[in-house]
Structures are given as structure tokens and as C-alpha cells.
Design a protein that fits this description.
Structural class: alpha/beta
Helix content: 25-40%
Largest sheet: 5 strands, parallel
Length: about 260
């Protein structure tokens, strides 16, 4: 039987090591294949390693654990790790595999390990969010929790302007005019209603500064303004293409982000 694999995401290194050491004693057959420092890194490492289990701290900088879970929990079993029990309880009640409240006790982790083992041993067991009614409920709960966390972050203002060099001048581009952004090696291509420009700021930083009600990351290298989306067409292997209003180019949607357009 193949060994099970896991990913641990927490912005505190000591807590990541603490959890990994406890898991090594309680579940020696489990191989921790990666550790992430934030939600964005957790999603990237999940795509690369495809672990069976993901331990996600709820409160992480940038992309928090709840938002990361919306992207990866449909393809792995998720355990939320949080100092705030109310978030985990709501998600757990709706179908998340389990949660741990920091500082967790080894006995509580042992219970979680047993549940994970039973789930992994179940023939054909599907993780929460697999397209079933229970999965849809889980997605709705995660969306609500993610909104709560954003509000509690202090209501910081979202990015209003993007400063870009256009020829010999510097242009201030209103974000509502931005159609999409695409990673281009060391730069990010900004496509707006009046043209195109390159900026040095990477995609992973921009997505945390843009209003999630208007902008969505649809691929590891693409952010799109949802107000400029005309339609989304499904493709093979759980991918899709975004068609833009009044433009001929299309944008790729990777399977990690396909759930964003489930209702379209």
C-alpha cells in the first residue's frame, strides 16, 4: 500500500515543525511532502505535490487558510488549524474532515489522525467539495468564512490605481479599467481599456491587493477583472477558457480555479 502524503501550511515555523513532529510519532506512515508559509504558497505547493491531506492554518498573511481551502480542499482532505474555534467549527459541521484548535493536545491530534486514516482507507471515498450537494454546502461555508476574515482584517482599502511606464511617461491606470493581468517572466502585463503596459510587481502580490469582488485569479499566471468576462467555456481535463467582452483573446482557467465559475 502506498504511503499517504501531507502538506502543512502555517506562517509560524515553530508551529509547522511542532505539528510535523507530532505527526511523525502518531502516523509514521505519513510523509509530509511540503511546508508552506502562507495560503498562496500552500496552493502552489499543493499543485506541485498533490498531497492526500492538507493542514491549513486559518489566519495567514495574504491568502488566508480559508481562501486556500476553497482552491484545494476539493481534491484533498483538509484539517483546519486555528486559534479561533468558531471558524473551524462551522466548516467542520459542513463537512471538513476535522479541525485543531491551537495550542492543540496530542490526544486531539491522535483522534484526527484516526479519522483521516479511516477516510483514506475507505474505498472510493471522495473529499468534501467533489461536486456533490455536501461539497456545494462546504464551498458556501468557506466563502462566508473567507468574507468574515477579510472584514476582520481591518477593512484595508483595495488597490485603486496601477502605476505603469508607457513609453517615456508614467501612467496611472484606474483598476476598474484593467481587463486582465498576466505574468510575463519578471514582469506583469497589464491590459486595460486603453492599452497595455508592463509593471515589475508580481501576480502573487497583486492578487492580495485587488478587491476579490471584482478580480479573480484564474490561473497561476492570470488575474481577470470579472466585470470584463463575457462567458466561460469548459474544456478538457477540468480546464476552461475565459472569453472577454469586446476582445478576441481568451484566458486559460486551470482546474484549481474552475470552481469560481461553477454557477456561470
Amino acid at each position: 500500500m502506498s504511503l499517504s502524503t501531507a502538506l502543512i501550511a502555517d506562517d509560524e515555523p515553530l508551529l509547522r515543525e511542532h505539528l510535523q513532529s507530532h505527526l511523525a510519532r502518531l502516523w509514521p506512515e505519513l510523509r509530509v511532502v511540503a511546508q508552506a508559509r502562507n495560503g498562496r504558497e500552500a496552493v502552489e505547493l499543493f499543485e506541485r505535490e498533490q498531497p492526500d491531506v492538507v493542514f491549513l492554518d486559518v489566519h495567514m498573511p495574504g491568502l488566508n487558510g480559508i481562501e486556500a481551502a476553497r482552491l484545494i480542499a476539493r481534491r484533498a482532505m483538509t484539517v483546519f488549524v486555528t486559534a479561533y474555534e468558531q471558524y473551524a467549527v462551522q466548516a467542520f459541521d459542513q463537512g471538513a474532515i476535522d479541525y485543531l484548535v491551537k495550542p492543540f493536545e496530542e490526544m486531539r491530534l491522535a483522534d484526527t489522525v484516526q479519522r483521516l486514516k479511516q477516510r483514506l482507507a475507505g474505498a472510493g471515498a471522495a473529499p468534501p467539495g467533489d461536486g456533490s450537494e455536501a461539497g456545494d454546502r462546504m464551498d458556501a461555508v468557506l466563502e462566508r468564512l473567507a468574507a468574515q476574515l477579510r472584514q476582520q482584517a481591518g477593512g484595508r482599502p483595495w488597490l485603486q490605481w496601477i502605476k505603469a511606464s508607457v513609453g517615456t511617461s508614467v501612467r496611472l491606470i484606474p483598476v476598474e479599467q484593467v481587463v486582465y493581468l498576466r505574468s510575463d517572466e519578471k514582469y506583469t502585463l497589464v491590459v486595460w481599456e486603453g492599452g497595455e503596459a508592463l509593471i515589475r510587481k508580481p501576480i502573487r502580490e497583486l492578487i492580495d491587493e485587488l478587491d476579490p469582488e471584482s478580480f479573480a485569479q484564474v490561473h497561476r499566471s492570470v488575474i481577470v477583472n470579472l466585470h470584463h468576462v463575457a462567458q466561460v467555456t469548459r474544456g478538457a481535463n477540468e480546464t476552461a477558457d475565459v472569453h472577454l467582452k469586446g476582445r478576441t483573446e481568451t484566458l486559460p482557467v486551470s482546474r484549481s480555479y474552475l470552481h469560481l465559475f461553477r454557477q456561470m
